[in-house]
Q: What sequence folds into this?
């Protein structure tokens, strides 16, 4: 047997191996320590701010602070749109849990309508669970107390205080101020960073147009919370910046007077200051209460408004429009003078019917036998159609449109309301887009001269153009906001508007047109001479009637005998005082009959309210003429004999206060007379009613036929032209 071989240990090699292994282990440990130190350094130094913020976020939550919405005032400083404290219920779906469990329980504590629940469910499905959703707006004080007792039962349900929009005169300014409403998905898309924070936004009117200024800037509060997420205390805040305040040019007293002047009739009216383009009053009737929409209108109220045939939500001044009728004649007359086709003294023979050369079809005047020879002034005062038939035909539609565009028609007035209608300026180009197979007929040019045919004009455009005639030819941009301030203690800054444009380069031409408009009211044969009765100031204007049905031969129809929906549209444009105008108006009465008998008396009441501070005394009816029997009217005062006038004293504007006092003193000095509150027969510097021309105040009974002198005529035979009584578009 071989003996085993003995292996000797190599101590040096083992020592070298141990040292190598120890060095490797030490290097690994050192690398680990260095890596760990580097990691700690990164956490504690480099990323300290980030992790400190995350840590703080577990304890402190940011809560947005919605700024107070800017207030809206009238020109006298009276609040028209206010903010009042209120409470709402917000729910965070992620914290609240299954709504099928807690909603019925909450409904036993707080009154929740089916609409509230449906709206919440729709928003819950469309938004992320960690975002609060409004369940109910305007929680009553009783509900607030009841919820506070049972609050512990509803995690994720919070009672939040906020400022609720309120309109003290909701229906009076519905179509001017508009309203705010609940934010919807479409609104959130345009809000950007404000989405999910704001609950309300401007929907219509000035609230919509000036939304960015009225909204303000959102602030934030840093709220410390407990482990349940309940707020404990505020640890910091970034204050919100309130929205800007708006001061309007509208006067609330005049606005009330305009509504009262219409009585039960539907229509619209605009009153402007011709010197500045400021809107003094603007009504669209019927109206509605804007407070219904602030926190969501009920289905019953919404159905009632939508089914109302009078369309109370429709803004007739901004979105509406129709044929202007004879209210266009002053502008057509000015175009005739500026184009060189007419001089003020040139006369045209009105035989009762006008014919285009070579055609048999006739275009009638308001009087069957015609008006005889009339110049420019009488053509306006008597509303002679033949004068304008012939003038429009000679001018041609292309040149006609150029002048009408210069006077502000076929374009927006620039008023600070969204969606303003531009109307329709009759032209071959416009017709070609509508009917490519049919050309432009001369008869369509003829009837365009009296405001019929394809014309669509808004009351805003009429008021703006009339103001330009009144102020010497300056076409102003209409605007509702007079001044803006960005803080309660900040100064009011005037609203910037575009500079006016000039509608004519010939002041003498404008003077002739103004004289014709003044003769419309104060002349012996003017179509609105009923306005002059008892007036202590002189006015200028033009009546208009847009027919809906044709006449039978030479016999004028009494529009009040027709079915309501077939009655003519009654219009009036004018300004006062004639010597130094401070107010210009446009009045449109739907289904009102004739402009001279319906729209003109409304305008007179508006003038009285602004110049004399006298509120309307009577309310016209939809089914009866607005003109009283002249046998019972006092020439001096314009009041019905034997009746005590119900004059409501209101603030008189500016320098007129002294004039009223002097006039009342003059009335008191007359035998058997006593002064009335803010009423007077004459203004200082103007002749008394008896000293004016005899035809102005006592021109006799203005019969229905005379009051209809501005009514357009129906063609007698076919020329291919559109009928003069084409329905309103």
A:
């Amino acid at each position: 047997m071989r003996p085993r071989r003995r292996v000797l240990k190599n101590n040096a090699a083992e020592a070298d191996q141990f040292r190598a292994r120890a060095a490797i282990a030490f290097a690994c440990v050192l690398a680990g320590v260095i890596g760990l130190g580097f990691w700690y350094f990164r956490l504690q130094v480099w990323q300290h701010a980030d992790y400190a913020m995350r840590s703080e976020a577990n304890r402190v939550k940011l809560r947005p602070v919605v700024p107070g919405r800017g207030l809206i005032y009238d020109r006298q400083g009276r609040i028209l749109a206010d903010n009042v404290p209120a409470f709402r219920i917000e729910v965070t779906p992620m914290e609240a849990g299954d709504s099928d469990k807690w909603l019925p329980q909450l409904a036993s504590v707080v009154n929740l309508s089916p609409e509230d629940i449906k709206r919440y469910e729709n928003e819950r499905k469309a938004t992320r669970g960690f975002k609060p959703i409004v369940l109910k707006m305007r929680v009553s004080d009783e509900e607030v107390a009841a919820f506070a007792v049972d609050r512990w039962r509803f995690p994720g349900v919070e009672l939040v205080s906020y400022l609720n929009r309120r309109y003290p005169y909701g229906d009076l300014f519905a179509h001017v101020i508009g309203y705010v409403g609940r934010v919807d998905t479409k609104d959130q898309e345009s809000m950007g960073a404000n989405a999910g924070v704001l609950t309300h936004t401007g929907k219509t009117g000035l609230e919509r147009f000036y939304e960015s200024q009225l909204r303000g800037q959102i602030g934030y509060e840093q709220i410390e919370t407990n482990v349940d997420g309940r707020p404990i205390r505020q640890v910091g805040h970034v204050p919100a910046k309130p929205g800007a305040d708006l001061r309007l040019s509208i006067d609330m007293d005049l606005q009330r007077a305009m509504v009262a002047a219409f009585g039960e009739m539907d229509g619209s009216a605009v009153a402007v200051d011709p010197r500045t383009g400021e809107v003094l009053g603007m009504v669209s009737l019927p109206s509605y209460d804007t407070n219904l929409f602030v926190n969501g209108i009920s289905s019953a109220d919404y159905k009632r408004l939508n089914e109302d045939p009078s369309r109370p939500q429709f803004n007739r001044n901004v979105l509406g429009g129709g044929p202007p009728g004879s209210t266009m004649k002053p502008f057509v007359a000015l175009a005739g003078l500026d184009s060189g086709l007419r001089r003020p003294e040139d006369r045209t023979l009105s035989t009762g019917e006008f014919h285009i050369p070579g055609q048999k079809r006739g275009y009638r005047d308001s009087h069957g036998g015609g008006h005889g020879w009339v110049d420019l002034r009488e053509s306006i005062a008597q509303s002679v159609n033949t004068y304008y038939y012939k003038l429009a035909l000679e001018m041609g539609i292309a040149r006609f449109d150029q002048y009408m565009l210069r006077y502000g028609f076929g374009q927006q007035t620039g008023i600070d309301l969204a969606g303003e209608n531009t109307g329709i300026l009759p032209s071959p180009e416009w017709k070609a887009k509508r009917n490519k197979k049919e050309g432009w007929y001369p008869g369509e040019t003829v009837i365009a001269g009296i405001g019929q045919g394809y014309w669509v004009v808004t009351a805003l455009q009429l008021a703006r153009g009339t103001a330009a005639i009144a102020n010497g030819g300056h076409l102003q941009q209409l605007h509702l906001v007079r001044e803006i301030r960005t803080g309660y203690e900040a100064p009011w800054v005037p609203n910037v508007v575009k500079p006016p444009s000039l509608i004519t380069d010939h002041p003498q031409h404008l003077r002739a047109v103004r004289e014709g408009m003044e003769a419309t009211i104060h002349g012996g044969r003017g179509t609105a001479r009923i306005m002059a009765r008892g007036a202590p100031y002189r006015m200028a204007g033009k009546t208009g009637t847009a027919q809906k049905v044709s006449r039978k031969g030479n016999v004028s129809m009494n529009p009040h005998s027709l079915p309501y929906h077939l009655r003519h549209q009654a219009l009036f444009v004018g300004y006062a005082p004639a010597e130094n105008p401070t107010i210009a108006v446009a009045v449109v009465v739907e289904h009102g009959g004739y402009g001279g008998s319906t729209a003109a008396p409304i305008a007179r009441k508006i003038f009285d309210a602004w110049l004399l501070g006298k509120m309307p005394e009577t309310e016209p009816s939809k089914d009866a003429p607005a003109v009283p029997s002249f046998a019972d009217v006092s020439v001096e005062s314009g009041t019905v004999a034997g009746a005590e006038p119900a004059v409501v004293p209101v603030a008189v504007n500016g320098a007129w206060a002294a004039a009223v006092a002097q006039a009342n003193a003059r009335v008191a000095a007359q035998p058997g007379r006593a002064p009335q509150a803010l009423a007077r027969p004459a203004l200082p510097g103007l002749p008394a009613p008896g000293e004016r021309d005899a035809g102005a105040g006592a021109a006799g009974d203005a019969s229905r036929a005379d009051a209809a002198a501005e009514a357009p005529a129906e063609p007698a035979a076919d020329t291919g032209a559109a009928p003069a009584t084409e329905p309103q578009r």
